[in-house]
Structure formats: structure tokens, C-alpha cells
């Protein structure tokens, strides 16, 4: 059984692309964000409403109605389905107009937001029925509950979903709106949109899916373009170590949940839903280099000792200050007189660090850096892989090399202007193609 999650559906063409992807994948659950245009109008309602501009709010609600009617006429041509969807639109719009008239508070704002999310999902549900699917909108607001720490209450969700599935066995696909849940007080609520992948993974785990397909922004990931899965497959451990090293791939708990239920994760780009970019599972293909990931907006910092503190005390002082300001260290190398780090921190934060450490070390800062992570089975005994990497980068200025901290990652730091040249060289060497412009 399969669950698919999609991101950023902007217009009618995107809707058609998602529907075509669903037709190919045949997921049991399709997890969908609210349409981008509806999202913008939703924000406009909140802004005008809290400024007591009721007329502007009603005008925006009317625009939502016209937009949904237009999509219905274009996407749902079967007369009865078209009529049923328009009835649903009218009911929803009437309810939103009534809510706008109420006194503004956060709960009513969330209720309006939930209504629009549900309307967006219903448009997909009826469009799928038009395509012959026996589809049903999944009211996640009834059983996706978060606890006091704002994390999914998985035991509660498992129980309520089990009952829901038993009551709706006739449907072959469910359309679930992203983010909607309820809090511990039973009120409508939303999980952070930054955790959309996690929200979908929780659903997939609860439905006991074999795999989850996540559409996400992955322009920084380069893998073999011949689509042979064994050449772009990561294990759960490789993916988790990569995320913990500071590289954005997925919310870490997605990997934990997937590994616990042995559920495979397939990553596709939001602009190319049909092409699998990465595959994460328990199976290790044994391939040496499986993917290359880039990380921009990094800063190279070298701390050179002023001999005020012994080396071990200087290291402790550096780590204490970095921990104090919660600075992410991407990679690090040291000698007996200096310590070099690749950091992700603002210029203001680095100035504060420099002020705190000026008695103990001189800081040299180089901004506009990129970090390239070479991912795969890279144990130190694989000398051939090391030599191929070093041979590939011999003509490219490299500021920092980090190797040995993980058997799955070899990290190079270069100026951003050299990033594409490095990625292309590595891609030709290990994938036989050119990935970056």
C-alpha cells in the first residue's frame, strides 16, 4: 500500500499533473496542500479581518467562490459530479461568510482556514471521481491529534484511523489535506508547514503503508539520471546521518518512523513528479557513491590560537561559545595551532562570537561558501573511492575536507562560484553525466 504527498500546487496545470501522477502511482492516500491561490486569499482574509475590514474579507471570499467554480467547470465535466461539487462550494462559502461576521479570534481564523483546506481537497476528490476513482476526502481534522508538545499523538491516531478505515472500506483512494489536526482540547489546529513531510509520514505509518512518495524541493540533490534505483538508494542510517550533519533532506523523525515500520521513502521533485530522485529503505545496495548534495550560504571560519589557552582548553571554549549561540557546524578540521569550521550562521552572530573569543583566538572569516556532501558506502577501506574523489578535485580550490566522521559521507567545502564545476566533475566521475549548469 502506498501514500503520496504533494507540494505547492499552483494552478490548473499543476492539478492535472498531480492527478496524472495519482493515476500512475495508485496510492491509497494522497496528501495534498491547499491550492496556492487559495492560500494567498486565506492570508488576505486573516489580514483584512483582524483589521476589521469586513467588506474586504467578503470580497475575497467571493473571489474564492468564483475561482472554485471555474476549476470545477474545467476539471469536472460529468454533470452530476459538477453539480455536487458546486453545491459543496456554495455550502462552504456560505459558512465562511458567516464566520467572517463573527468576532475575530484565533479559533475562528483557524476554522475558516480548515474550511478552505477542505474545499481544496474536495476539488481533488471530485476530479478523481471524474477519472473513475472511488475517492473520498479524509477528514484529518477529526483524528490527527497533537499532544501538549505539539507532536502527533500516534496511539490516539492509530485507534481513530482504524475505526475510520473499517467504516469506509469501499473507497479505493482517500484525499487528505495537509497540516490539519486538532489539539488536546479538541479544537481545530494545524501542524507547522515545515513538517509537511512528517505529517504525511505519520499518516503513512498509521495506514501501514509499504512506501511513501514525497514530493519536495530537492534541487540541491544530484544522483544518477538513468533512474536505476540501486544507484540512488540510501539506507535509513545514511539518510539519518546526513540530516544530523545539517543537510536539509527531510525532517529527521520521518526517517525514524519509516525505519520503525520498514517503509520505503521515495523522493521526487515538485517540478518532476514522475522521476524518482532518491530512494530510502533498509536495503543497502553497496554502491560506493549514491548521491551528491549541495548546501549553500555557509561560512568558513578559521580560529588560530593566540597561545593564551592550551589546545584542549581552546577547543572547549570554542565549543562552549558555539553551543551558547546554537550555531550549526557543518564540518570541522583541526591542527595543533588552529581549528577550521564550516558554519551556518548570520554575520551578526559571527561578530558576537568574534567579540567573545578575541582574547583567545584570531578569526578569519570567508563567506559565500558551499558545502558538497558525497553520499554512499565510503568506509576508509575503500581506497579506490577516496583516490577517485581526490583526483576529481585536483584542479578545484577546496577550503576544507571532512572525512572519517561517518562511513557514509565525504564533505568538501568550496567557494560558491566553484560549486557547479565541482558537482559536474563529481557527476561525470561517478554518474557518467553532467548535473549542474
From TrEMBL:
**Any one Gene Ontology molecular-function term assigned to this protein's record:** aspartate kinase activity
Residue ranges of every copy of the Aspartate/glutamate/uridylate kinase domain listed in the record = 102-268
Q: What's any GO biological process attached to this entry?
A: lysine biosynthetic process via diaminopimelate
An example of a Pfam family matching this protein is: AA_kinase
Record InterPro entries? AceGlu_kinase-like_sf (IPR036393), ACT-like_dom_sf (IPR045865), Asp/Glu/Uridylate_kinase (IPR001048)
Instruction: Choose one Gene Ontology CC annotation of this protein and give it.
Output: cytosol
Q: Which reaction does it catalyse?
A: L-aspartate + ATP = 4-phospho-L-aspartate + ADP
Per the record, the similarity remark reads: Belongs to the aspartokinase family.
Protein name stated in the entry: Aspartate/glutamate/uridylate kinase domain-containing protein
The protein's organism comes out as Bacteroides caccae CL03T12C61
Amino acid at each position: 500500500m502506498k501514500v503520496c504527498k504533494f507540494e505547492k500546487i499552483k494552478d490548473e496545470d499543476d492539478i492535472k499533473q498531480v492527478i496524472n501522477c495519482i493515476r500512475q502511482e495508485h496510492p491509497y492516500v494522497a496528501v495534498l496542500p491547499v491550492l496556492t491561490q487559495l492560500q494567498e486569499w486565506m492570508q488576505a482574509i486573516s489580514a483584512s479581518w483582524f483589521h476589521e475590514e469586513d467588506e474586504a474579507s467578503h470580497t475575497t471570499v467571493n473571489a474564492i467562490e468564483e475561482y472554485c467554480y471555474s476549476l470545477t467547470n474545467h476539471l469536472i465535466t460529468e454533470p452530476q459530479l459538477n453539480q455536487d461539487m458546486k453545491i459543496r462550494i456554495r455550502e462552504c462559502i456560505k459558512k465562511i461568510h458567516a464566520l467572517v461576521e463573527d468576532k475575530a479570534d484565533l479559533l475562528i481564523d483557524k476554522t475558516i482556514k480548515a474550511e478552505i483546506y477542505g474545499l481544496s481537497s474536495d476539488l481533488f476528490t471530485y476530479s478523481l471521481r471524474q477519472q473513475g476513482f472511488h475517492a473520498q476526502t479524509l477528514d484529518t481534522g477529526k483524528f490527527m491529534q497533537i499532544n501538549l508538545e505539539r507532536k502527533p499523538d500516534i496511539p490516539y491516531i492509530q485507534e481513530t484511523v482504524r475505526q475510520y478505515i473499517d467504516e469506509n472500506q469501499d473507497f479505493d483512494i482517500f484525499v487528505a489535506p495537509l497540516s490539519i489536526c486538532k489539539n488536546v482540547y479538541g479544537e481545530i489546529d494545524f501542524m507547522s508547514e515545515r513538517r509537511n513531510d512528517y505529517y504525511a509520514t505519520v499518516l503513512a505509518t498509521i495506514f501501514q503503508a509499504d512506501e511513501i512518495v514525497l514530493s519536495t524541493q530537492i534541487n540541491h540533490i544530484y544522483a544518477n539520471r538513468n533512474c536505476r534505483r540501486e544507484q540512488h538508494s540510501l539506507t535509513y542510517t545514511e539518510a539519518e546521518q546526513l540530516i544530523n550533519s545539517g543537510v536539509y533532506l527531510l525532517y529527521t523523525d520521518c526517517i525514524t518512523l519509516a525505519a520503525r515500520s520498514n517503509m520505503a521513502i521515495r523522493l521526487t521533485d515538485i517540478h518532476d513528479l514522475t522521476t524518482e530522485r532518491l530512494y530510502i529503505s533498509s536495503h543497502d545496495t553497496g554502491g560506493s557513491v549514491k548521491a551528491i548534495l549541495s548546501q549553500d550560504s555557509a561560512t568558513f571560519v578559521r580560529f588560530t590560537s593566540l597561545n593564551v589557552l592550551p589546545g584542549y582548553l581552546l577547543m572547549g571554549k570554542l565549543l562552549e561559545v558555539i553551543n551558547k549561540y546554537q550555531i550549526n557546524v557543518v564540518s570541522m578540521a583541526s591542527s595543533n595551532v588552529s581549528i577550521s569550521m564550516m558554519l551556518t550562521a548570520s554575520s551578526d552572530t559571527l561578530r558576537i562570537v568574534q567579540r567573545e573569543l578575541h582574547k583567545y583566538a584570531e578569526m578569519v572569516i570567508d563567506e559565500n561558501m558551499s558545502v558538497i556532501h558525497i553520499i554512499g558506502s565510503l568506509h576508509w577501506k575503500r581506497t579506490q573511492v577516496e583516490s577517485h574523489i581526490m583526483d576529481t578535485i585536483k584542479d578545484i580550490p577546496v577550503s576544507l575536507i571532512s572525512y572519517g566522521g561517518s562511513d557514509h559521507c565525504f564533505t568538501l567545502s568550496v567557494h560558491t562560484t566553484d560549486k557547479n564545476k565541482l558537482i559536474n566533475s563529481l557527476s561525470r566521475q561517478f554518474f557518467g553525466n553532467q548535473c549542474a549548469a
